[in-house]
Write a structure and sequence with these properties.
heterodimer, A: 166 residues, Dihydrofolate Reductase, subunit A, 8-stranded mixed β-sheet, two-stranded antiparallel ribbon, 11 strands, B: 172 residues, alpha/beta, globular
Chain lengths: 166, 172
């Protein structure tokens, strides 16, 4: 079964964006780890806004699953997912393939977390407090146990925390 | 100048207690020796809620050897033996204490106090012990932070159940 991995940059106080949508505080991702990660995955899960921001070819030739009830059918490597998220994600996870990068945004992350469909968390914790903004985790219903797999630190002050979701 | 350290155990989603004040999800980490942690300190700074929680658990003012306990509250009139009550402008009092002689000071529980020191540009270090669980809701360690605050990563330590991130606050 393919794994769904939430990999995201987050401030020390848990925000993925500043109060006005800022992400200028994000450090460049460590090159080697990012390349390894991109080799591990062959598809992305994105919300509409994230998709419109990065486009369909930001990370090379990957399948893009865009979760939206308003977008029309796109072509090529982009597939629009609408309606019941849970059953469709289960179908995609059961397909042949590599792991899937849950890119965001926040409401897609919440839905998949609450459906128990996220297998791993790779959090790039940034050495900054933003004070306010869009929280990485919101609307999580109840406790979710995880297991710490790996911790990596970088000279920039970035800490990569790698968890599996239990 | 004495340093002030704000250290807390939090869930992976940043809460130091659950929505009803629960702390049952915190696991004792055998690799962390509390005696070792308090070594650099001779002063604990706490707010009313932490003080009252300590009293409910029967913790007295002499629980930590060689530590002076200061309680910052404008609503209380009296505190138990071994604690000292500070009324009025707590930040100004702490600023004065920071310049006095002594070992380092720790914010002992109390997100309101810890975060008001961050906002005042007076906090020197942050220690976040991240437990491997999401709570979904609760009382966050960082709240009402008024502006972006940069940190410098000092060290990380992986424990048996989680990870401890130690930062210096970049003030100014």
């Amino acid at each position: 079964m393919r794994k769904v991995i939430l990999q995201v940059a987050v401030s020390l106080d848990g925000f993925i964006e500043g109060p006005k949508g800022e992400y200028d505080w994000c450090l460049p991702p460590p090159g080697r780890e990012m390349n390894e990660f991109l080799k591990r995955i062959d598809a992305l899960f994105l919300g509409r806004k994230s998709f419109e921001m990065i486009g369909s070819k930001a990370f090379g030739k990957k399948k893009n699953y865009v979760f939206s009830n308003t977008l029309k059918k796109s072509s090529g490597e982009t597939e629009i997912i609408s309606g019941d998220i849970g059953s469709q994600v289960r179908r995609i996870k059961a397909m042949e393939g590599k792991d899937i990068w849950l890119f965001g945004g926040a409401s897609l992350t919440t839905s998949l977390m609450n459906e128990g469909l996220v297998d791993g968390l790779e959090l790039a914790v940034h050495p900054i407090l933003l004070g306010s903004g869009k929280p990485l985790f919101q609307g999580i219903k109840g406790r979710v146990k995880t297991k710490l797999i790996d911790v990596k630190t970088y000279p920039s002050g970035l800490v990569m925390l790698n968890y599996s979701v239990l | 100048m004495r340093r002030i350290v704000y250290g807390m155990a939090v869930s992976l989603d940043g809460f130091m207690e659950g929505p009803h004040g629960e702390t049952d999800w915190m696991s004792y980490d055998a690799s962390q020796d509390p005696g070792e942690y308090i070594k650099p300190f001779d002063t604990f700074l706490m707010g009313r809620k932490t003080y009252q929680a300590m009293r409910r658990m029967g913790t007295g003012g002499n629980a930590f050897k060689g530590i002076k306990n200061y309680v910052f509250s404008n609503s209380m009139d009296d505190v138990a033996e071994g604690f000292q009550l500070v009324k009025g402008d707590g930040v100004a009092v702490i600023d004065h204490m920071k310049r006095a002689d002594g070992k380092d000071m720790a914010v002992y529980g109390g997100a309101v106090l810890g975060c008001s020191l961050i906002n005042a540009g007076m906090l020197d270090e942050v220690v976040v012990s991240i437990q491997s669980i999401l709570l979904g809701n609760g009382n966050p360690m960082f709240q009402n932070i008024k502006k972006r605050t940069l940190m410098k990563l000092v060290k990380t330590k992986r424990g048996t159940r989680g990870v401890i991130l130690h930062y210096q606050v970049v003030n100014g």
